[in-house]
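Page 47, continued from p. 46.
Same chain as before, 145 aa.
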Amino acid sequence: MKKIIHITLAAFALLLVTSGTVTAKESIASLRGTEDLEGKSLKVTKKKVISQEGGFERSYKQQPPMIPHKIDKYKINLKNNGCLKCHSKKNHKKEKAPMLGESHFLTRDGKKLEKVSSRRYFCNQCHAPQVDANPLVKNDFEGVK
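Result:
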């Protein structure tokens, strides 16, 4: 009985090893193309950031606004936030920039703060600049008008 179990397990292991070899030789189509996952990736082409006066139209009601200008030289760390130079309560009128939303000055419990909440300090967690790029996959999404 033990011999039959050992032979069955050995046959099963052999089947697993050979089936893995067959699938490894097949090409896998992905967003990366047919490039080997272990190989070097193609050089990423830098895309042009779209600057748009007045910002971008939102696709749904609670969508964070997209950034309508370049931000690659902005620093956002624990001591400095380049976005606040224009979008803070203090500077937004002088800079003719939209002020941060009121939600950025609330604690988790809804208490109002004088400064930006630490939960909302790192702007590019929700807001992103837009680039002139073709979509990677077909997309039929239509936002709310």
